[in-house]
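Retro notes (design track)

What went well: tokenization of the new backbones is finally stable.
What didn't: we kept losing track of which sequence belonged to which structure.
Fix going forward: every design gets posted as structure first, then sequence, in one message. First example under the new rule, 188 residues:
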């Protein structure tokens, strides 16, 4: 069974990506509707049971911490995959520029939704210039609390991607690369 599709997509990561996405969605719901499973301080019987669940392996099914970390690792692997396969340094510049715009579309869509909901339920709560600033700059380059709080990882993701591209451009042409961990030999 081939590990990649003809276009070069890594099919074997799709299932893992889907499972991780479901866990992140569950995590957001738990944080919103049942935060005591994440932030336990209640000393009643109910609070102690929630604390036990939060400290048990069941936490893996509703905490987004591990899935987000795995997304970062998978992203680093996928980012370096094509370069490690071709060793074409011109790819780095193209993908480096394209990365920002790849994030821009879904983030802009999420901000439009947030703005519309804010206008419906909290009129005059946020301004269009503020939303535009966060959509184009702040969510990516500053690790500050934004209107759309679940985007806290975007600055890490984008800057981490840029770091990987930079390291690939500096060290990627070496015969024995420093990035063998990002591209195991069994995929070559």
């Amino acid at each position: 069974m081939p590990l990649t599709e003809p276009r070069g997509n890594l099919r074997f990561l799709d299932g893992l990506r889907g499972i991780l996405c479901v866990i992140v969605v569950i995590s957001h719901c738990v944080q919103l509707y049942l935060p005591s499973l994440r932030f336990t301080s209640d000393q009643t019987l109910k609070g102690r049971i929630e604390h036990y669940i939060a400290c048990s392996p069941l936490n893996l099914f509703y905490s987004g911490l591990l899935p987000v970390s795995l997304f970062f690792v998978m992203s680093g692997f996928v980012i370096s995959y094509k370069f490690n396969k071709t060793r074409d340094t011109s790819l780095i510049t193209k993908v480096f520029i394209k990365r920002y715009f790849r994030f821009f579309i879904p983030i802009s869509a999420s901000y439009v939704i947030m703005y519309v909901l804010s206008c419906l339920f909290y009129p005059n709560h946020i301004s269009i210039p503020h939303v535009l600033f966060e959509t184009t700059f702040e969510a990516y380059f500053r690790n500050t609390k934004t209107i759309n709080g679940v985007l806290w990882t975007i600055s890490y993701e984008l800057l981490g991607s840029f770091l990987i591209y930079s390291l690939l451009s500096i060290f990627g042409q070496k015969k024995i690369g420093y990035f063998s961990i990002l591209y195991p030999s069994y995929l070559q």
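Added context from the reviewer: The mean pLDDT is 76.
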